[in-house]
Amino acid sequence: MALTVRPISADEHRAFVRDQPWMSFLQTPAWAAVKSEWRGESLGWYDGGHLVGAGLVLYRKLPRLARYLAYLPEGPVIDWAADDLEAWLAPMTGHLRSQGVFGIRMGPPVVTRRWTAEQVKGGIADHAVRRLGELAPSERSVAGARVVQHLQAGGWRPLVAETGFAAGQPQYTFVIPLVDGEGHPRTEGDVLAGMNQLWRRNIRKAEKAGVVVSTGDATDLKAFHDLYAHTAERDHFTPRPLSYFATMYDALGADDPRRISLWLAHHEGDLVAATIGVRVGTHAWYSYGASSTDKREVRGSNAVQWAMIRDAIASGADSYDLRGITDTLDPDDPHVGLIQFKAGTGGEAVETVGEWDLPLNRALYKGFDLYLNRRTLLPRRAGR
Length: 384
Known about the structure:
Number of strands: 16
CATH class of the domain at 179-317: Alpha Beta
Structural class: alpha+beta
Largest sheet: 9 strands, mixed
CATH topology of the domain at 179-317: Aminopeptidase
CATH superfamily of the domain at 179-317: Gcn5-related N-acetyltransferase (GNAT)
Helix content: 25-40%
Radius of gyration: 21 Å
Order of helices and strands: EHHEEEHEEHEHEEHHEHHEEEHEHEEH
Shape: globular
């Protein structure tokens, strides 16, 4: 198979997206508008005259040099199970080299391992276990292992956050399957039964307290952001500006009116929780969230998550993605609370192959690595 790679228009890219059962929203052409500090380019993989793959490339220019880092977050969208994976990667590398790229970063959307919520819970309770990788997985992907082996053999380097670029996408996520092992849709009752007792109790508590969840629009982004900034101050993280969310809402919504949604949970007129959801094909994501310190007892966060899950089920999604987690199972690690909260939904922890770098000019790549240790230039992952 002789594949070629060349730029495609945003419209051609959108048409390709519409035909996919699922792909990351970070690989849609609209994401280039969200990351406006980068230069975006849509690439197409062609088998003869037929478009068989696509990817969004974000280019970051080196200071004072016409050389670039090329970044494909959670992409590209190609046949990662192909016997000859290099037939897909080599023409991409050739095109990017011709554009003055000194290094390529990509995050293949390929699963390597999965762990059930019960396994995660057991690992946290086991004092001998500190990381997800120390647990035997419920599923190990042969295809994922093949991709890792191929990348290693091809000179690609796995990204380790402690030794260079800040990670752009999470390697570990938590996902609620909305279809069973035979591909049959799960009902609301099925999903609710899979949650732990605390989650079910908090959902009931929110209902009894009179929490009302509704969807909003662009005019509600200011209210969302006010609550998000409050959450950032409480939880000690740096919030994104309101302009970022306005751009994200407009750009993704222009690609597809169903792509992005804003969810608001009110109690007696007070906004107690708010979230942003994203949808591509049959995959639904929880992307950003915020909650009030006041009235936490009415469980607005559980209510709004349950509303989003129910909507994903009703619209035919096959998974609800709670996005990033760390791999820690150490009860003394402050990050363990995040995986505990998400594991309560009864879903599964998912590991992908992660992000990989291919230095094309080792001297420039090393210099840029040092530069990024002083300034975080890679786009932060969606969500927090």
